[in-house]
Design brief:
This protein is an all-alpha fold. The protein contains 6 helices and no strands. Helix 3 packs antiparallel against helix 4 and helix 4 runs antiparallel to helix 5 (about 65-75). The protein is globular.
């Protein structure tokens, strides 16, 4: 799947089949279900999972917690627009 197809899937009621957990978390967050996204990513241990986790807390407005997760991801704290970071995450995970 490419980014365009992933974005298009947001108009559907259910996520596409076969998404990995990190993309699934991004999908739910983009659909407005932050809690479901956070629940999914909490069970993941990779650096990419930490990046998604950081993004979620940044989206939530909890910048202190986001900073912790950016450090776990080995990434600088994002300063770009949230939508730009979502797109960068989706692109990296696709």
């Amino acid at each position: 799947m490419e980014l365009g197809g992933f974005r298009d899937s947001l108009s559907k009621a259910a996520p596409p089949e076969g998404l990995g957990n990190l993309l699934l978390a991004l999908w739910h967050e983009a659909k407005g279900d932050w809690n479901r996204a956070h629940e999914i990513v909490q069970n993941e241990e990779s650096r990419n999972a930490a990046w998604v986790h950081a993004y979620l807390h940044r989206r939530e407005g909890d910048l202190s917690n986001a900073g912790y997760w950016y450090r776990r991801a080995g990434r600088p704290i994002a300063e770009n627009a949230l939508d730009e970071e979502w797109e960068a995450l989706a692109t990296a995970l696709l």
